[in-house]
Amino acid sequence: MSANKKTKQNFLSINRWETWLFCLFSVTLILACTSDLDNGGAPLVGPSFGITIVPQGPQILKGGDQTFTATGGVTPYTYSLSATDIGTIVPATGVFTALAIAGTATVTAVDSTGVSGTTTVTVLPTLLVVVPGTAVNTVAGDQTFTATLNSASGAIACSISDSNLGSLTTIAKPSVVAAGAVCTVTSTAVPAAGAANETFTITIVDTWNGDHATATLTLAHPTGSPGF
C-alpha cells in the first residue's frame, strides 16, 4: 500500500470519529434545549444530595428562638417541625420559636428538588421549686413535698428511686402518691439502731409542660446511726 493511500485512510477514520462526536454533541444539545423549553425556558435542575441543617441538636429555653439553616441542596428550602406542641417554625426562613412545653422535635428541611435533611431541637424544662427540698425522718409515716408550678395545670407526677449508691437497703422503699401539686411519700419503717441511713430521691414532674424537680428524703433511726 502506498504511503498516500494509507494517509488518506487514516484521515478518513479520524474524520468519521470527529463526525460521530459532533452528531452526539448536537443531539445532546437539541434534547437539552427541548427540555428547557418544556420547563418554560428555565433550565431543569436535577436532584440534590447531602442536605445538612445547622445547628445540629440545639437546646433552648422556653420562649426562645433558634434559626435553622440548610446547606448542600438547591434553594429554596422549606422547613417543618414534627411536634408543634413544643414550638413553631417559619417554613420559608427556618426560624423556630419555643412554646411553654418542654420536649424534643425533629426539624426537616426540604429543598426545591424534594431532597430533605433533618436535625432535632430540644426545649428545656424549667426547674420547679419544691418544699422541702430535703427531709430527714426518724419515724415511719408520711412526708409531703409541694411543688410551685409554672403552668395552670395544677397536676404533677412523682416517682421515687433509691439513692444509696449501690449499698444494700434494709427497709422497704417508700411509696409515692401525687395529688394536685403535692407528692406524698409514705415510709413503712426506718433503719434499725446501728444501721446506715437510707436516702431516696423523689422526682416531681409537671404533667402539662415537663417542668421538673427533685427532692431528697433520708430515713434514719431515732437514736442516730452511721452517716446521720
CATH class of the largest domain: Mainly Beta
Can you give the mean pLDDT?
A: 83
Number of helices: 1
Count of discrete structural domains: 3
Calculate the terminal CA-CA distance, rounded to whole Å: 114 Å
Major pleated sheet: 4 strands, mixed
Percent in helix: 10-25%
Cα-atom radius of gyration: 35 Å
What percent strand?
Answer: 35-45%
The beta-strand count equals: 17
Structural class: alpha+beta
Largest sheet strand order: 2-9-8-5
Assembly context of the chains: single chain
Task: Give helix and strand order, one letter per element, not per position.
Answer: HEEEEEEEEEEEEEEEEE
Given as residue ranges, the uncertain stretches (5+ residues, pLDDT < 50) are 3-14, 19-45
Can you describe this structure?
By secondary structure, this protein is of the alpha+beta class. It has three domains: 1-35; 52-123, Immunoglobulin-like (Sandwich), CATH 2.60.40.1080; 129-219, Immunoglobulin-like. Helix content is 16%, strand content 39%. The strands form five sheets. The chain has a four-stranded mixed beta sheet with strand order 2-9-8-5, with no helix packed on it. Strand 6 and strand 7 (95-98) form a beta hairpin. The longest helix has 36 residues, at 3-38.
Summarize, please:
16% of the residues lie in helices and 39% in strands. With 228 residues, the chain is an alpha+beta fold. It has three domains: 1-35; 52-123, Sandwich (Immunoglobulin-like); 129-219, Sandwich (Immunoglobulin-like).
Which helices and strands occur, and which strands form pairs?
Layout (H helix, E strand, L loop, with lengths): L2 H36 L13 E3 L4 E2 L4 E3 L1 E3 L6 E4 L5 E3 L5 E4 L4 E8 L5 E8 L5 E3 L2 E4 L3 E8 L7 E7 L12 E5 L2 E6 L10 E9 L5 E8 L9
